[in-house]
Amino acid sequence: MPGVPDVSPRATFQALAEDPDAVLVDVRTDAEWNFVGVPDLSEFGKQVVLIPWQVYPTMQVNGAFAEHLRRAGASATSKLYFICRSGARSLAAGQAAQAAGFPHAFNVADGFEGPVDAEGHRGSVAGWKADGLPWRQR
């Protein structure tokens, strides 16, 4: 298995813009989508696919993750870009996707909010939000 390559948020955004079949899969929890926001791909006529990697509040791995990908229309030829808060859960989700027959899995480096800054806040150092990419509250 080749592994899941890290792709910057900007390169991910560009790939989503240029490839009609590229899909952004947000693997954070319901609570994160609702309270932190989600990437906005409406300018490309796309929506982010929301499939939690771990289920809140127990944070158990979603045993139906691969099945949810299939139901969302993903196939072995789909280019799937996985995003979470900071890039760890999305890497695990990408690895699971590859193991389940989705070879074109990519990890969005630094995720939606990135690492914490000097004040302990996320969203300003690196990641989707810090790069100024479109997002919205749910």
UniProtKB/TrEMBL annotation:
Keywords carried by this UniProt record: Transferase
PROSITE patterns: RHODANESE_3 (PS50206)
Source organism superkingdom: Bacteria
GO molecular function: transferase activity
Domain Rhodanese: 18-124
Keyword Transferase: yes
Keyword flag Transferase: yes
Membrane-traversing stretches: none
Protein name (record): Rhodanese-related sulfurtransferase
Organism field: Falsiroseomonas stagni DSM 19981
